[in-house]
Design the sequence.
């Protein structure tokens, strides 16, 4: 056990020395992997954030009923009564045209425009929170209410969220494909690096074989090298994304203040980050393993 | 310790390097292997270390049947041997010390223990003062000593040397032979392939002579 540990420790040390011996080319190949990985990783992170946003909105569908401009207070009471009996409604609230105008005045920064209006152009409205239902049910609710004679227009406010959701699904598929392609690229980069290393260490490998080194002893430093390269590449991709997110969030501050919503992009979760590192380490290991299998057997002592 | 029975070695191009070779070397013996160049000396040594496989016949080394060894167990056969190669196979990308360290690294020795052993081996061949030097700066005789140190640092029971005194002047060759004798005296089995006549005049030791692949004495 102690011997096994010490052999692994030695191999790890050898690998780090090897990396330090050619710092520029090591850094370059790590950054190549990092930049390649930052593309799918960035999209993945963004999608995760958008999904959280749209999921939050899409799960509590909202319906706005705009009444006709000439609706009377008895019309309003009738609708009020109908809504109270209506199934699948979580809650609803009446927004009179006066209140709507006040809100517009205060919140949109359009006070001057509103002041200059001669007549209130806004209709009375009901804002209805509907219990989570399927899109089809939502549609039939919308259709039913649209038919009420007092109602001018029934609008589902969450259509955009559903569309976003569809886009996200498409995006997820794109990320998956990109990640597969770039995973292959990582394997190829490591494969090639290890091939060059094996060629430059030909003498050492040959002598080692002659004096009784096992194949696993000879393989070990290369496998460590591949795993470390993969992991370092993923770590640099993670850093690139972290910097990108920071930059975006800074400019988001302005935007979110304007729209008075609370939305910031979060980086990958701890679990996602760890899986990313481990998975890339495994890909690097795989590239090295394939390369070693391919090239080491060609070096047989004579 | 080493025994050959009816060993043939034929290369793919049809050249027969060894024909019906049979001999036995006992533990603790020092034996010379001689013959003109191309007589099959190097092939015979390679068969012992399983660098080459015989076409037919039986080879036993330290009670292991070399013919039957699987590829994965060959490293462990080689670990029981100390080999001095004709072309030396020194690694010039590292110090003298690191060169001698290699066999111990392969065996997974701890650093402290192996450092002490490396120094002991270098001391034995008189190279301790040059442990930090790059092998490229060593003289021909010193390089040969480096090879010996690397071959014995793991204390093998069998020492095999292929032309260890080639290209060395007589005095140097004698002192290198002294080193081999001192190993034989502590119980190591030593097999030296050479065509150095001055060495062979030393009649204390047995000589195996190869002629065109046949053992003639």
Sequence:
């Amino acid at each position: 056990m102690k011997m096994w540990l010490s052999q692994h420790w030695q191999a790890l040390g050898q690998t780090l020395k090897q990396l330090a011996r050619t710092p520029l080319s090591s850094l370059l190949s790590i950054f190549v992997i990092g930049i390649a990985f930052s593309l799918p990783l960035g999209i993945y992170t963004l999608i995760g954030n958008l999904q959280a946003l749209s999921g939050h909105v899409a799960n509590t569908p909202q319906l706005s009923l705009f009444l006709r401009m000439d609706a009377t207070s008895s019309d309003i009471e009738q609708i009020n009564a109908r809504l109270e009996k209506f199934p699948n409604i979580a809650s609803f609230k009446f927004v009179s045209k006066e209140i709507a105008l006040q809100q517009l005045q205060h919140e949109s920064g359009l006070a001057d425009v509103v002041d200059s209006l001669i007549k209130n152009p806004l209709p009375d409205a009901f804002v209805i929170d509907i219990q989570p239902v399927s899109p089809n049910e939502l549609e039939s609710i919308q259709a039913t209410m649209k038919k009420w004679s007092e109602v001018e227009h029934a609008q589902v406010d969450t259509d955009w969220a559903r569309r976003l959701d569809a886009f996200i699904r498409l995006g997820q598929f794109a990320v998956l494909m990109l990640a597969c392609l770039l995973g292959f690229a990582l394997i190829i980069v490591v494969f090639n690096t290890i091939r060059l290393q094996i060629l430059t260490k030909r003498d050492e490998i040959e002598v080692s074989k002659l004096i009784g080194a096992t194949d696993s002893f000879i393989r070990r430093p290369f496998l460590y090298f591949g795993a470390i390269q993969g992991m370092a590449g993923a770590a640099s991709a993670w850093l690139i994304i972290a910097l990108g997110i920071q930059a975006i969030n800074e400019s988001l501050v302005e935007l979110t203040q304007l729209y008075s919503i609370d939305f910031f992009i979060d980086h990958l979760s701890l679990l996602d980050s760890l899986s990313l590192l481990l998975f890339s380490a495994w890909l690097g290991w795989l590239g090295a393993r394939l390369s070693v299998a391919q090239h080491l057997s060609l070096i047989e002592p004579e | 310790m080493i025994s050959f029975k009816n060993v043939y070695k034929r290369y793919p191009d049809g050249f027969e390097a060894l024909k019906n070779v049979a001999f036995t070397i006992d533990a603790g013996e020092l034996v010379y292997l001689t013959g003109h160049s191309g007589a099959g000396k190097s092939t015979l040594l390679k068969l012992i270390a399983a660098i080459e496989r015989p076409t037919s016949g039986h080879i036993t080394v330290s009670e292991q049947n070399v013919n039957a060894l699987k590829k994965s167990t060959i490293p462990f056969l080689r670990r029981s041997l100390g080999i001095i190669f004709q072309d030396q196979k020194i690694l010039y990308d590292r110090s003298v010390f690191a060169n001698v360290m290699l066999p111990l690294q392969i065996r997974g020795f701890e650093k402290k223990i192996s450092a002490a052993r490396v120094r002991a081996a270098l001391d034995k061949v008189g190279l301790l003062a040059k442990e930090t030097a790059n092998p490229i700066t060593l003289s021909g005789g010193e390089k040969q000593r480096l090879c010996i140190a690397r071959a014995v640092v793991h204390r093998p029971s069998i020492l095999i040397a292929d032309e260890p005194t080639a290209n060395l002047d007589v005095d140097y060759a004698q002192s290198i032979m002294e080193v081999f004798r001192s190993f034989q005296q502590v119980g190591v089995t030593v097999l030296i392939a050479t065509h150095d006549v001055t060495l062979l005049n030393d009649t204390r030791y047995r000589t195996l002579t190869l002629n065109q692949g046949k053992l003639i004495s």
